[in-house]
What we know:
Blueprint: E1 2-4, E2 8-12, H1 15-24, E3 30-32, E4 50-57, E5 60-67, E6 69-73, E7 79-82, E8 85-87, H2 92-96
Parallel strand pairs: 3-7
Antiparallel strand pairs: 1-2, 2-6, 4-5, 7-8
Amino acid sequence: MSITPDAKVVAAIGTANIVGxxxxxxxxxxLFANSLKFSFHPSSSQRIHTKTVSTSQDDMKYMLTTHSxxxxxxxxxxxxxxxxxxxxxxxxxxxxx
Length: 97
């Protein structure tokens, strides 16, 4: 996991789905991260590998693209907790910059 200065969280694949489900069901999202997880590079320069393969199923052919990581907007995180304690929501984006 990495938190980038453009207020994005680069996380394990599937994280974006979980965050989306939490928001739909009004479950708060907590992000626990120590300062070693804060990156100096924006999300666009993170090394997220993409793999595209030709797939077919039931006589239908399509291209399937998968990514090695998800990118989640920090605005979707309700609670950020670091070794300094809880960072209040209005200060989250300022904290990562």
